[in-house]
Write a structure and sequence with these properties.
Elements: E1 26-28, E2 31-36, H1 51-67, E3 73-82, E4 92-102, E5 105-114, E6 117-128
């Protein structure tokens, strides 16, 4: 399976970020998927992944779902639904897919699950940007 290109310094996917999560999003049926195991330095309350990191994982996944076969994008809107606490030091599955595309606007969805149980979900709108 081919890895989707990442930004080297990104907190979520950057391989060159010494304090990052180093998430590796891979093409999957209908979008992208990543298996991550965030450590203690990403927790909010004891044993629970910080909500901002939960949101960032899904945001990154949705960006990758677009850039897999489309232009680079930035987040225009993000809606998160936290369904259960997301534990640290467990293998989480992050999935994301594109729902709709209109010119330079892309609508996506994402989920974080553990052992088949959805712990958080998100929808987002992304706008195409010029490559640098």
């Amino acid at each position: 399976m081919t890895t989707v290109a990442s930004s080297g310094s990104c907190l979520i996917c950057g391989r060159n970020n010494p304090i990052g999560i180093h998430a590796e999003f891979l093409p999957a049926e209908g979008g992208v998927q990543c298996i991550v195991k965030p450590g203690k330095h990403f927790q909010g309350y004891d044993g629970i992944l910080h909500g901002g990191i939960v949101a960032a994982l899904m945001d990154d996944g949705m960006c990758y779902a677009v850039t897999l076969d489309g232009p680079p994008v930035v987040t225009a809107e993000l809606q998160i639904r936290y369904k259960a606490p997301v534990p640290i030091d467990r293998q989480l599955v992050v999935t994301a897919s594109r729902l709709e595309s209109r010119r330079n606007l892309f609508c996506c969805k994402a989920e974080i699950s553990l052992d088949g149980k959805i712990l958080a979900s998100a929808t987002g709108k992304f706008i195409a940007v010029e490559r640098r």
